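Figure caption, in words: inputs first, then the predicted bound structure.
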Amino acid sequence: MKQVHVAQNPPEAYLIKGFLEANGIKAVVQGEDLFGIRGGIPVTPSTSPSVWVAEADVAEATRLVEDFFRAEVEHQEVSWRCANCGEMIEGQFTECWNCGTSRDADLLQESSDDPDESA
Ligand SMILES: [Zn+2]
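Bound structure (zinc ion present):
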């Protein structure tokens, strides 16, 4: 077995385990029993719960974990500006509260000045 991820806490370790298994990779969590008894000991890689997979799955699992955290970051944007009315919108909303424009609208409209009559 090889370690592919060191988690901040047991729920994160199990989140990764479940994510990998949903993608067809058998994973195990090790070290989570240490989490409950170490009390005020600072978090270090040696005492944090970690996710392990078979050596044959390491490359695929590493790529999946990277994708997992990249997706998390992309969904934690602090705020965005509405392309239609210019309002600043908090990151948890996907549409402008003021005019209903989608968060992705600016990406679609930026490359062309022509009105999109087919839409
Ligand atoms: Zn708007």
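Residues 7 and 48 are 6 Å apart (CA to CA).
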